Amino acid sequence: MALIECYECKRSISSEASACIHCGAPMAEPQAQAAPVAVKSSTISFGSLPRNSAVPEAVAATPVAAPLPKVMPAAAGRRRRQPAEQTVEPQVNVDGSRPVEGWLKIMVFLMPMIFVWFLLRGGHSAKQRLFGFGWLALLILASSLSPK
Questions:
Q1: Which domain of life is it from (predicted)?
Q2: Considering the entire predicted model, what is its pTM?
Q3: 10, 124, 129, 138: least surrounded by Cβ within 10 Å?
């Protein structure tokens, strides 16, 4: 038995371990040690990070008698947790129309030539449209009556 370096976390583990005890990465199947073969590696390893001797290493509290299940890399097989589906009730005004959002109110006031057309979407009341297009008409009228 020899100590080898984990390809995932670069920490020392036993060569007989089926998975890294630190990160859970599965180890390659043991190969027959017939003749040493020159291995060409395309990755560069800078070694492991220095360790703080004041911090104790993590060890298993109890010995495991039963065989461990197959360990996969940390991200493999994980599914994203789906948030609990919540029914979102659309907000409606007293008259049944949807409210004009804050950003739309500001943009209709500042640039009505562009944003007043958003009031034509379904759900907006005739009163909301009248205010928006009335503001647009007032600005057009004021710009046409201004002295040149």
A1: Bacteria
A2: 0.38
A3: 138
Question: Residues 123, 124, 130, CA angle at the centre, nearest 5°?
Answer: 155
Answer whether residue 92 is part of any domain.
no
- Which one-letter amino acid corresponds to residue 136? L
Per the listing, tokens 């057309």 go with: 117
E-assigned strands of the chain?
3-5, 12-14
Asked whether residue 36 is domain-assigned, the answer is no
User: Which residues span the domain enclosing 7?
Assistant: 1-28
* Angle formed by the axes of helices 126-145 and 102-110, nearest 10°: 20
CB-based contacts of 144: which residues, under 8 Å, 6+ apart? none
Cα angle: 87, vertex 92, 97; to 5 degrees: 135
Q: How far apart are CA 15 and CA 116, in angstroms?
A: 70
> Does a structural domain hold residue 73?
no
